[in-house]
Amino acid sequence: VREAPLSTREHDDAQSFDYDHDRLPGRRGQELRHARESKERWAKIVGKIDEDGDGFVTVEELKAWIKFAQKRWIYEDVERQWKGHDLNEDGLVSWEEYKNATYGYILDDPDPDDGFNYKQMMVRDERRFKMADKDGDLAATKEEFTAFLHPEEYDYMKDIVVQETMEDIDKNGDGFIDLEEYIGDMYSQDGDADEPEWVKTEREQFVEFRDKNRDGKMDKEETKDWILPSDYDHAEAEARHLVYESDQDKDGKLTREEIVDKSDLFVGSQATDFGEALVRHDEF
């Protein structure tokens, strides 16, 4: 009895790479097939970013991709949450619907065992919801709900973003962020250990750039300039960083090979959403 071939692929010695991977048994074969499929996914992603099809990815093309990935992530997040909060399916999410879906299970127990103050969080959410709700009817349209979930994307929500940030960092409640509060938000002193160099740099940044009027603390406007700078493009900064780190021949643009060689950097970048793109099976 003739045995069936190990692979259904036709064997061509000149192009036997894929065939050989299919013949390998067990985990090793799976790993190599996965690597091949991953390489194909990389080729597809890079092809999407390379808008002019010249075989290179420029800073501008990468910047456009990052902005696209961010918009897609926000859209999908809103769609997912919309389904869980528009309880009566009337095309609006009312504050009552959101409150009941999010906090209903703890409203009867305002002081749960974990010690977290859910009531305070609910009050904060209600304040943000009312800010996002432009017409004041306490029922959010899809656009208003997006502004509620992602306020940093909307100009009219910037004040609430600044207010919430200050409330999080201003531990002594004086309405300002002083140097120690600023550092404490990003670094926790561990005993007598020396501060890392980056913390010292942040202290210098606070004194030289954050505290513009040199009064030892950041007010609302200074905090806004810090977290929502008008002259800073996050997508462009991330694109320039990725090109700088990956551009081996320093020609100012990336080949597919240069991107794949630094795949960990790209997958690790939340801005590119590459990690998600590699495992998606739909077109993006």
TrEMBL record:
Localization: Endoplasmic reticulum lumen; Endoplasmic reticulum membrane; Golgi apparatus; Melanosome
Protein name in UniProt: Reticulocalbin-3
PROSITE patterns, per the entry: EF_HAND_1 (PS00018), EF_HAND_2 (PS50222)
Keywords: Calcium, Chaperone, Endoplasmic reticulum, Glycoprotein, Golgi apparatus, Membrane, Metal-binding, Repeat, Sarcoplasmic reticulum, Secreted, Signal
Database matches in InterPro entries: EF-hand-dom_pair, EF_Hand_1_Ca_BS, EF_hand_dom
CC annotations in GO: endoplasmic reticulum membrane; extracellular region; Golgi apparatus; melanosome; sarcoplasmic reticulum lumen
Domain EF-hand: 37-72, 73-108, 120-155, 157-192, 234-269
Region (Disordered): 1-32
Membrane-traversing stretches: none
Subunit structure: Interacts with PCSK6 (immature form including the propeptide); probably involved in the maturation and the secretion of PCSK6.
Sequence similarity: Belongs to the CREC family.
